[in-house]
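Known limitations

Structure tokens in this collection are predictions and should be treated as such. Users comparing against experimental data should check residue numbering before alignment. To illustrate the layout, the record for Phospholipid scramblase is reproduced below. The input appears on top and the generated tokens appear beneath it.
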Amino acid sequence: GNYGYQPQPMGFPGGFGVPPVQNQPNMNGAIWMPIPPSIPNCPPGLEYLTQIDQILIQQQLELLEIVTGFETSNKYELKNSLGQRVYFAAEDTDCLTRNFCGPARPFTLRVIDNLGREVMALHRPLRCSSCCCPCCLQELEVQAPPGTTVGYVVQNWHAFLPKFTIQDEKRTDILKITGPCIVCRCCEDVNFEVKSVDETSAVGRISKKWTGFVQEVFTDTDNFGISFPMDLDVKMKAVMIGACFLIVSLSF
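Generated tokens:
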């Protein structure tokens, strides 16, 4: 499955074939972020994240879902602050799971770079999200590249606040995320604050962007923003992307 995605042309060693096209639109008019050089000890495909401190995630509008109400697999564009596409993400679930489990469904989200490589896989198993079941709360595993775990996003029990912990591959707590008491707010952004483990200093933010009354009411497409320090470990940037998608699935 290419999920309807057209990768950027890739060259071949020795100067043969088509060289990589930098900052060019694809058939859908999207502008790609220039391909960064390889970086030692950086998971392949995550080099893009070393150059950015913000990501905008835009869910693609599905006409079939609007007309019929039938839940289709979600697809997203991940862009930098200049509007250039960094990644494309597509949900990999079956039809029955999407339409019978709804927002509680397990899923695998495959993240593809501009060369068409699958650079991340986000796995969410079937879990409970109710505060009445604190022993089986939500969790998401981030692999980069697929098959290599770089971290986890774990939901923490709280009576009225959405709270999460970002962990590294060894299950060590790295960052905390806290959302507002009332998530569904009209006519304004909804912010989830990313903080240090002791929650004394701000590190970043995950925000749901208000997109206007018509789109908010009549579709389930959403725009989200992620901000993080430029020098944050690239693996933790990847896990923050995973945290955003877990928050999307739980809260919106």
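For this record: The first helix runs from residue 63 to 68. The chain has four helices and twelve strands. Please report discrepancies through the issue tracker.
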